[in-house]
Amino acid sequence: MYLPSFQYLAPKDTGELASLLSDHGDKARILSGGTDLLVQMKSPGLRPDFVIDISGLDELSGINFDAKTGLVIGSAAKLDDIMEMPVVKEKYFALWQSIETIGARQIRTMGSLGGNICNASPAADTPPALVALSAEVSIAGAKGDRVMPVEEFIRGNRQTALKKGEYLKSITLPVPEKNSGSAYHHFRVRGGMEIAMVAVAVQVVLEKNNKTIKDASIALGVVGPTPIRADDAAKILVGQKPSEDLLQTVSQACADISKPIDDFRASAEYRKEILQVLVEEAFDEAYIQVAGDSK
Ligand SMILES: Cc1cc2nc3c(=O)[nH]c(=O)nc-3n(C[C@H](O)[C@H](O)[C@H](O)COP(=O)(O)OP(=O)(O)OC[C@H]3O[C@@H](n4cnc5c(N)ncnc54)[C@H](O)[C@@H]3O)c2cc1C
After folding, report:
1. Residue 228 pLDDT
2. Which of 186, 119, 115 lies closest to 154, judged by CA?
3. How far is it, in rounded angstroms, from Cα 98 to Cα 272?
4. How far apart are the C-alpha atoms of 239 and 138, rounded to whole Å?
5. pLDDT of residue 186
6. Residues near ligand 1 with C-beta < 6 Å?
7. Does the predicted TM-score (pTM) go above 0.85?
8. CA angle 62, 133, 273 (to 5 degrees)
9. What are the distances in angstroms from CA 209 to CA 65, 107, 179, 214, 290?
């Protein structure tokens, strides 16, 4: 469990970060909080020659909300600092809940949002919430910036869209429409530090009457190698008033497109059943935020 030897590099700005990444290519790994990277480097396999620490870069650590353009979170912003921003709890509740569930305070103080996304673990908590909230990532590289939705950025188990020499710059969440609410629900056996077995994030927008559903998005987590955006299931909700039958149809549609694994923690069949419960629970919580009442 000792760290292998490596050269530690701490760029003073993003210009130097870009040139270090271009010089060292695949021999380098970015370190943000290190709560995933250092654990992986202590296990056999990951042996970078260079570790490039971005935690001191103010350019990557900002968290800024603008009422027109939305919330922009620097990739190295600490999870705990994001949670502490009142606007996150107020307007992006699903993201707030997904962060609150991560590890313990010590992990959230060290760990960053960018690290949680770039690590691309199928069990990571924030990606489903970010997908349901239609977040986009901004990638910086020698050829300029690229922007894409989170669901396109995470390509597979531990795989992202980052190309050689690129790094994740920021994450942008649009301003939620009026009359909208969101929630993130996950299932784990123990209450303590354990990764989720199944997770669901829902965002719902209601018409002015605060009853009929104007728009909805649903993202499923830990039931496939990447978060699944359940657009067809979400469409079933549009134009409807919630009812038990409607939610059962939606949760069944989510279970049908999920691809959970069978492992020592739970069978695929069990995960699909839990998924359906979580879809209904997360919907209820998001809906109540706006309607102020259960369906
Ligand atoms: C005890 C413990 C409990 C945990 N519990 C949870 C949990 O409940 N839920 C959960 O989702 N996670 C959990 N984690 C995992 C981890 O804490 C999170 O994924 C955290 O957000 C990672 O952030 P970091 O800044 O520490 O990433 P790092 O470890 O610094 O980096 C992770 C990966 O992302 C890459 N990277 C980081 N930033 C960038 C960037 N800007 N551009 C390109 N690549 C980048 C790194 O090279 C590395 O491959 C836990 C970890 C521990 C040790």
Report:
1. 98
2. 119
3. 20
4. 33
5. 96
6. 29-37, 39, 54, 75, 79, 101-103, 107, 110-112, 114-116, 118-119, 124-125, 162, 167-168, 193, 195
7. yes
8. 130
9. 28, 42, 10, 10, 10
Q: What is the pLDDT of residues 166-203, one digit of tens each?
A: 999 999 999 999 999 999 999 987 766 678 899 999 99
Contact between 168 and 137 under an 8 Å Cβ cutoff? The reply is yes
Contact of 133 with 150, CB cutoff 8 Å: no
Question: With bands split at pLDDT 50, 70 and 90, how would you rate the model's confidence at 266?
Answer: confident
Ligand 1 centre distance from Cα of residue 104 (Å): 13
Tokens linked to 166: 């690129």
Q: Return d(Cα 109, Cα 99) in angstroms, integer.
A: 11
Q: How far apart are CA 151 and CA 110, in angstroms?
A: 25
Domains of the chain (ranges, CATH numbers) = 7-53 (3.30.43.10), 58-173 (3.30.465.10), 180-290 (3.30.390.50)
Q: What is the pLDDT of residues 29-65, one digit of tens each?
A: 999 999 999 999 998 889 999 999 999 999 999 999 9
Q: What percent of the chain has pLDDT over 90?
A: 89
Residue 67 has pLDDT above 80, yes or no: yes
Q: Residues near 117 by Cβ (< 8 Å), separated by ≥ 6?
A: 75, 124, 126, 127, 130, 137, 150, 153, 154, 160, 168, 171
CB atoms within 10 A of CB 163: 11
